[in-house]
Automatic annotation (TrEMBL):
Cited PROSITE patterns: ACONITASE_1, ACONITASE_2
Cofactor comment: Binds 1 [4Fe-4S] cluster per subunit.
Gene Ontology terms describing biological process: L-leucine biosynthetic process
Ranges where the Aconitase/3-isopropylmalate dehydratase large subunit alpha/beta/alpha domain occurs: 7-454
Residues that span the membrane, as ranges: none
Organism: Roseivirga spongicola
UniProt catalytic activity: (2R,3S)-3-isopropylmalate = (2S)-2-isopropylmalate
GO molecular function list: 3-isopropylmalate dehydratase activity; 4 iron, 4 sulfur cluster binding; isomerase activity; metal ion binding
Lineage: Bacteria, Pseudomonadati, Bacteroidota, Cytophagia, Cytophagales
Name of protein: 3-isopropylmalate dehydratase large subunit
Length: 464
């Protein structure tokens, strides 16, 4: 029978099928960070259990880390406590940890792929919703709750019911200035922030195939923002080339063996999905959000809609009120106070390159505070090797040290109440970047242009 990519990977990991449609799923890799692991460690210890397969776990602090002076003790008490607890737990249980200052430290969803921990055909979990990022490699990757973190620690397995499958196909050539972030914001604007609920999504089509691995990660990363359980893309030459030679990727005969399996990872001709969508690449333009969920996105040149069918009138108006916008108006010309380039969605080297290419020889607008936070130590190192740090400094951008940072308004990386921030992150919820902060999600290019212009503009007029 024709199988989907999802089914192939899932079925290969079912240890046992239980009554009621629940599977015991084997988990190949478990990533942990400081926010969702402490209670799991406590639970394990209180029950006298050991970690079952600690060599399949990797830990890194990312959410609470300051993005300045990482060599100094952490100032904020809660953050220090969280990071110290992770360190202590990992030391006590002998779990591999890339702590602050380690060359492999970074946002968990950035370091997995860059270290070759994320591989095609793997099952991967983390107590973090954006674990969906790793699906870009043809892995089944999804976020889990703290009690499930403990379950995986103790058994390397997870009780799961199989989600429904959805395929989103984007064919054709992408317009100039359109990046992966625009594709996913476009998709979410079409499906709504709840449109993927209950599904695992496969992204397909020539426009997706044409993307780099980092761009594919941006797309899979935000699958969760339409409510989907996860997203994935069939591995191909682009994937294999990216994976090859990374720190923990298979080598020699192991590589050949892996490739044999990886080459079988695609949805068979005739495989059926519970839901299918098709969008032409030509319809996608640079996007921006105007509201307080990631589904409230528009083409940057379009007007805010008058109403939103899926949101009640009241919640639509509440959202606009929070943002200080009016229904039906254009965002063009709106002044912006902050630009944040970072997060597990868009903080990789290609993102930094897009920004540096655009801002080279330019200067940020006076009214804008522009902050750029690399996703990992490796991204930071590469940026410096390429001179991106200098280009950014000359343009008036502040390049900080790796972490989640202003994506969730951590430590001092906050957007003040009432201020507008064009952000390359993935969530524009009320207060996400700080109490009262107003977030507009966009691509790194849109963020870069906004920083230079000091306001929202039609970026097509600013491209060569
Ligand atoms: C802290 C963590 C549980 C959370 C998540 O799961 O998404 C965070 O990463 C976020 O983006 O809000
Ligand atoms: S960068 Fe943002 S979205 Fe990603 S894991 Fe960190 S807090 Fe969550």
């Amino acid at each position: 029978m024709a199988k989907t990519l999802f089914d192939k990977v899932w079925d290969a990991h079912v240890v046992k099928s239980l009554e009621g449609g629940i599977d015991v799923l084997y988990i190949d890799r478990h990533l942990i960070h400081e926010v969702t692991s402490p209670q799991a460690f406590s639970e394990l210890e209180s029950r006298g259990l050991e970690l079952f397969r600690k060599d399949q776990m990797v830990a890194t602090p990312d959410h609470n880390v300051p993005t300045k002076d990482q060599h100094l003790p952490i100032q904020e008490e809660l953050s220090k406590h969280q990071v110290d607890t992770l360190l202590a737990n990992c030391a006590r249980h002998n779990v591999t940890l890339y702590g602050l200052g380690h060359p492999f430290q970074g946002i968990v969803h950035v370091i997995g792929p860059e270290l070759g921990i994320t591989l095609p055909g793997r099952t991967m979990v983390c107590g973090d919703s954006h674990t969906s990022t790793h699906g870009a490699f043809g892995a089944i990757a999804f976020g889990i709750g703290t009690s499930q973190v403990a379950q995986v620690m103790a058994s390397q397995c997870l009780l799961q019911s199989k989600p429904k499958t959805m395929r989103i196909t984007i064919d054709g050539e992408l317009n100039k200035g359109v990046y992966a972030k625009d594709i996913i914001l476009y998709i979410i604007s079409k499906l709504t922030a709840a449109g993927g609920t209950g599904y695992f999504v496969e992204y397909a089509g020539s426009a997706i195939r044409s993307l780099s691995m980092e761009a594919r990660m941006t797309i899979c990363n935000m699958s969760i923002e339409m409510g989907a359980r996860g997203g994935m893309i069939a591995p191909d030459e682009t994937t294999f080339e990216y994976v090859k030679g990374r720190e923990f990727s298979p080598k020699g005969a192991e590589w050949d063996k892996a490739m044999e399996y990886w080459n079988t990872l695609y949805s068979d001709e005739g495989a059926t999905f519970d839901k299918e969508y098709n969008f032409p690449a030509a319809d996608i333009e640079p996007m921006i959000t105007y509201g307080t969920n990631p589904g409230m996105g528009i083409k940057i040149t379009a007007n805010i809609p008058d109403r939103l069918a899926e949101a009640g009138e009241e919640s639509f108006q509440k959202s606009l009120k929070y943002m200080g916008f009016e229904a039906g108006e254009s965002l063009l010309g709106k002044p912006i106070d902050y630009v944040f380039i970072g997060s597990c969605t868009n903080s990789r080297i290609e993102d930094l390159r897009i920004v540096a290419d655009y801002v080279k020889g330019k200067r940020k607008a006076e009214n804008v505070n522009a902050m750029i936070v690399p996703g990992s130590k490796q991204v930071e190192k590469q940026a410096k090797a390429e001179g991106i740090d200098k280009v950014l400094a000359e343009a008036g951008f502040e390049l900080r040290e790796p972490g989640c940072s202003a994506c969730l308004g951590m430590n001092e990386d906050k957007v003040p109440a009432g201020s507008y921030c064009v952000s390359t992150s993935n969530r524009n919820f009320e207060g996400r970047q700080g109490p009262g902060a107003r977030t507009l999600l966009a691509s790194p290019l849109v963020a870069a242009v906004t920083a230079i212009e000091g306001k929202i503009v039609d970026i097509s007029k600013h491209l060569n």
